[in-house]
Amino acid sequence: MVEYVYFAPESAFREKAEKMFMKHRELILQQLPKSEIHYIGSTAVRGSLTKGDVDLQVRVAQEDFSTAKKAFQNLYSINEGSYQTSFFCGFETKDDLPVGVQLTVKGSEADHFWKTTHFFQEHPAYNETYNQLKKRFDGKDMEQYRDAKAEFLTDILASKAYQTFLAKC
């Protein structure tokens, strides 16, 4: 069965999304008070087109990863559509908006979500290019969009602009 993707301006979700972020941030901090939590993804970038979901990245030390993963399994469902490693696990839940939580080990190869979000926040021209990609796939096959998105983000992560940005992080 084909899943379709639809986008809307983040401003349509902003108030509710910020409340969802704060709510889930507090839930997570109750379980993992030493974790670092970032509001990530397109809904966190003003001027973006978004699916209207709320994404968080929770950064922990490697030695805390197993404990964090177990704690999250009491709060969220594991996102079966994403890969899992010893340094990354995706979770999801339904709330007023869909919520995704990316649990990552600090400094691991999966510890890039917050950086990528900040890059788009600070580089509106790249964000607009991303919006154009989303417009091309609005109302179309989700898998095809995900493939195009992965290619686009791979190119962004390899770009000179992103590498220069990383040097400042």
From TrEMBL:
Keyword Transferase assigned: yes
User: Which segments does the entry list as coiled coil?
Assistant: none
Q: Which InterPro entries match?
A: GrpB/CoaE, NT_sf
Q: Which GO terms describe its molecular function?
A: transferase activity
Its domain of life?
Answer: Bacteria
Kindly state which keywords UniProt assigns to this record, in alphabetical order.
Answer: Transferase
This protein is called GrpB domain, predicted nucleotidyltransferase, UPF0157 family
What organism is recorded for this protein?
Answer: Sediminibacillus albus
